[in-house]
Amino acid sequence: MKTMIIKHYRYALVLSLLTSSSLAMAANYELLDSHQHSFKNLEQITPDTPEQGHSISIIDSFHQSTEKNKKNQVLEALRLLKENKLDDAQKIISDLLQHNPNVADYHNLNALLETLKKNPIAAQQNYDQTIKLDPKNIMAYLGSAKLALDNGQLDKAKDYANKALSINNKTLNAYLVLADVAYKQKDNAEIEKLLQTAQDKVKGNITEEIDVIKNAGKYYALQKQPEKILALTEELSSRYPDNTSALSLLAQAQIINNKKSLAEETLFKLISLDKGNIGNRLLLIKLMSEQPDKEKETLKLLDETAQLTPNNPEALIYKTAYLIKLKRTEEALKIADKIDSLFPKLVLGKLLKGDAYLSDKKLNKAAEMYQKAYNIEQNDRILFTLVDLLIAQKKQTEAIKLLNGAVEKNNKNIAAHFKLATIYQQQNDPQQAEAHYKAMLTQQTDNALALNNLAFLYSQKNDPRALEYGKKAYEKAPESAAILDTYGSILIKQNQAKEGLALLEKAAGLSPKEPNIQFHLAESYVANNNPEKAIEILEPLIQAEADFTEKKAATDLLEKLKLR
Questions:
Q1: CA-only gyration radius of the chain, Å
Q2: In the list 83, 164, 378, 425, which could disulfide-bond 141, CB 3.0-4.6 Å?
Q3: CB-based contact 519:550 (threshold 8 Å)
Q4: Final residue of a domain: which of 169, 185, 201?
């Protein structure tokens, strides 16, 4: 049995820039993400005439359908909608509709407004009015399809999307709606078919081809089929060998498929085509920084990138973090000082100096820098790193004071409550730990971490509530080894040996190298009258050099079993 603790390791905050993913492809599949909240971004709409066969901007659409003296009002309404200034946008849209009630696209604008106001019924009424005025208005059908999709009305969504396609069979967003419907229906074959059809229909329009591939990429990422993403991007870049957007997708797909040398080649080509693109350079730097033999090349590229953007600290941050990684602390500190002087209102320089001192194991100086950073920007990442540093220096009182300050400012800060609870638990102060775990549950009644750790606390003092909280944590996270361990151990103590054994066997299967779980599994075999199996687990566990929390208890149990 063990508590679950989220460790805020004393690692370099800014150094994480070198290890975090720069991929654009999202992990979550949401084919309509660029049109969330009924096309909130307002960037694309398919034209009303099927002869055109490509997307035009919504602004251009309004240019064609509105009088010149209304153009500025429409543009202003669009801007306000983008900025979510709904009351101001409503005044303009209401004025447009009052003087021009028969202009279909004004009703589309109003539908977008109502969608953002979370009034789907009113939004649909506006789309219906648009369709009544203009039966071939594709945006109204797409907006209606998205509303139906959000409401779980899949047949309606399909119907509206198909109506848009009947007007123009090259309407990309309609295919994406249909693909999203197929995804919700778990019809993988239909998804691939629709994405392929969409790609065929928009072939020749590089912008829309890229949109299709991005959405296909999300789907294949979810299906864990990165090789299909690579095939799509390779084919696209073969037809558009000098298109930077196509090459950027290719580089990302190559990285996903662990073809890093090919990704480097692609990124070098991208840099030659678009010398000012810092993102491509930083992604290349990230790849090169992982290779010890490319230290000089990496530093050279970092210097070139920094010269390109003297007012942007990003390249300097990368270089400092890279030097810290190389243990070249003095050089790193000089650049961190430069960043601090160039951008005194930002925390970047102070965090980098904290990282550099941390790399040199100068904990006092590191903590001083993190404290200065936290004084400027009070966010949890800086706070928890600073707290971990203080605890490493045996300054628990200061750490607790900082955390209590964060909780006083925001009692709903679940992460701060959790951090406090775990510190108090490690200090053998179960009453304070319990108070903060319960504070977490006040905000999130089903928080598995708090439920699990409360179950552990109650179990330690034989409180019958242990079983209740352990069960709730298990129901919330049945695949967590730590939660299975806690609940299974509680069941053993509650004389439910058979049920406890089943959970502990599952926990050991999920975390076979966790010695404490193995020990609890051995205990469960003893409780189930199978001492031989327990000995089989305990012997290698005790003989291993690695230490663990309950090693003495495991040793004592093994000796006891052998004396039988």
A1: 30
A2: 164
A3: yes
A4: 185
Instruction: Identify the residue whose tokens are 């202003």.
Output: 76
- Number of domains present in the structure of the chain: 2
Q: Per this entry, what is the length of the chain?
A: 564
**Confidence (pLDDT) at 375:** 93
pLDDT digits (tens, 9 = 90+) for 116-162: 999 999 999 999 999 999 999 999 999 999 999 999 999 999 999 99
129 in any annotated domain: yes
Contact 372, 350 (CB under 8 A): yes
Residue 188's SS3 state is helix
Residue 482's nearest CA partner among 461, 462, 445, 453 is 453
pTM over 0.90: no
Which one-letter amino acid corresponds to residue 188? N
CATH of the domain at 50: 1.25.40.10
Query: Rounded CA gap, 336 and 323, in Å?
Result: 11
| Ranges of residues in the chain whose predicted pLDDT is under 50 | 5-66
**Whether 340 contacts 353, CB under 8 Å:** yes
Region of residue 229 (left: phi > 0; alpha: psi -120 to 50; beta: else): alpha
The residue range of the domain holding 511 is 469-562
Does 449 map to a domain?
A: no
Sign of the four-CA dihedral 392, 398, 400, 406: negative
Which amino acid is located at 132 in the chain?
K
In the chain, the amino acid numbered 179 is A
